[in-house]
C-alpha cells in the first residue's frame, strides 16, 4: 500500500469513528481531499485508492492540475479565496465552490457557468469567529446573502463553510462548528434548503463531525506537508 492510500484509509477510519461516536452515519460525511500545492501524481494515487473529490485553493494551479490529472470522473472543489477577475476558470472547470462571500462574485460565477454543465454547487464562507482572518461574511449577513444567491439560475446553493482559528482543545474546537451549525439551522428555518456543512480539516475533523459536518476538507493528513515552491 502506498503512503497516500494508507493515509486515506486512516482518515476514512477517523471519519467513521467520529461519526459513530455521536450516533451519525459515516455515509453522511463526505471527504474532500485537499491537494493544493501537491503534484498531479498524488491526486492520481488517491484516486486509484478510491478517493473521488479533491479541493484546490488557487485558480491557476487548480485548473492546470485538473487537466494534468486527466481523470474525468473526479469531482473538483474550489475552496480558496475568490477574486472577481478570476471567476471564469472556476465556473468552467470546478464542480463546487466553497468560498462564496459576495453577491457580485456569485452573480459572475452563475453568469459564467457553461450551459452544458449542471449548476455550480456553492457554499457561503462564514467568518464565524469574527477574528483576524478576513475571509468570509459575518453571520448576521448570511440570511440576506443566501436568499439572493439561492435565486441565481446557474448556482445551486448547498450550504455553509468555515475555517476557524486553529486550536488543539477538542471542546474549544467544537465551539465555532456549533455556531456554524446553528446558523445553518437558522437559514433552513427561514426557507433555504441547505444540506451541506463544510467544516473540519486534518486537525479538527472529529470536532466538526460531532457538530454536524457533512463534508470535511483534509489535506495534510492525506498528502503530508505541503509543497511550496
Ligand atoms: C488547506 C485547506 C484545508 C486543508 O487543511 P489541512 O489542515 O491540511 O487538512 C482545508 N480547507 C481549506 C479552505 C484550506 O485552505
Description:
There is one protein chain. The longest helix has 20 residues, at 170-189. Helices cover 41% and strands 17% of the residues. The mean pLDDT is 96. It is an alpha/beta fold and 229 residues long. Strand 5, helix 6 and strand 6 form a beta-alpha-beta unit. It has a single domain (3-223), classed as Alanine racemase (TIM Barrel, Alpha-Beta Barrel). It is built from nine helices and eight strands. Bound molecules: pyridoxal-5'-phosphate (PLP). The site of pyridoxal-5'-phosphate (PLP) has 13 residues, from strand 8 and helix 9.
Describe the secondary-structure layout.
Elements: H1 3-21, E1 30-34, H2 40-48, E2 53-56, H3 59-69, E3 75-78, H4 88-93, E4 96-100, H5 103-112, E5 120-125, H6 142-149, E6 155-161, H7 170-189, E7 196-198, H8 205-210, E8 215-218, H9 220-223
Helix pairs in contact: 2-3
Q: Name the helicity range.
A: 40-55%
In CATH, the architecture is: Alpha-Beta Barrel
Alpha-beta content class: alpha/beta
First-to-last CA distance? 28 Å
**Into which percentage range does the β-strand content fall?**
15-25%
CATH secondary-structure class? Alpha Beta
* Silhouette: globular
Average per-residue pLDDT, rounded, comes to 96
* SS summary, helix count: 9
CATH topology category name: TIM Barrel
Computed CA radius of gyration, to the nearest angstrom: 17 Å
Got a strand count? 8
Order of helices and strands: HEHEHEHEHEHEHEHEH
What count of structural domains?
A: 1
Write out the strand line-up for the largest beta sheet, numbering strands in chain order.
Answer: 7-6-5-4-3-2-1-8
Give a quick account of the main beta sheet: strands, pairing sense, barrel closure. 8 strands, parallel
CATH superfamily: Alanine racemase
- Taking pLDDT < 50 over at least 5 consecutive residues as the criterion, the unreliable ranges are none
Amino acid at each position: 500500500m502506498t503512503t497516500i492510500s494508507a493515509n486515506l484509509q486512516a482518515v476514512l477510519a477517523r471519519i467513521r469513528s467520529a461519526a459513530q461516536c455521536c450516533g451519525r452515519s459515516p455515509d453522511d460525511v463526505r471527504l474532500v481531499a485537499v491537494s493544493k500545492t501537491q503534484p498531479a501524481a498524488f491526486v492520481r494515487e488517491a484516486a486509484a485508492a478510491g478517493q473521488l473529490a479533491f479541493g484546490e485553493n488557487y485558480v491557476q494551479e487548480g485548473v492546470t492540475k485538473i487537466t494534468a490529472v486527466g481523470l474525468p470522473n473526479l469531482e473538483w472543489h474550489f475552496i480558496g479565496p475568490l477574486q472577481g477577475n478570476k471567476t471564469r476558470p472556476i465556473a468552467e472547470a470546478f464542480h463546487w465552490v466553497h468560498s462564496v462571500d459576495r453577491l457580485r462574485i456569485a452573480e459572475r460565477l452563475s453568469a459564467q457557468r457553461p450551459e452544458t454543465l449542471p449548476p455550480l454547487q456553492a457554499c457561503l464562507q462564514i467568518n464565524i469567529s469574527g477574528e483576524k482572518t478576513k475571509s468570509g461574511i459575518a453571520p448576521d449577513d448570511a440570511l440576506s446573502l443566501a436568499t439572493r444567491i439561492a435565486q441565481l439560475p446557474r448556482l445551486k446553493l448547498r450550504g455553509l463553510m468555515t475555517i476557524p482559528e486553529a486550536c488543539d482543545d477538542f471542546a474549544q474546537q467544537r465551539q465555532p462548528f456549533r455556531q456554524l451549525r446553528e446558523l445553518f439551522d437558522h437559514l433552513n428555518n427561514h426557507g433555504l434548503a441547505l444540506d451541506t456543512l463544510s467544516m473540519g480539516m486534518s486537525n479538527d475533523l472529529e470536532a466538526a463531525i460531532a457538530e454536524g459536518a457533512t463534508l470535511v476538507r483534509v489535506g495534510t493528513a492525506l498528502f503530508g506537508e505541503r509543497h511550496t515552491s
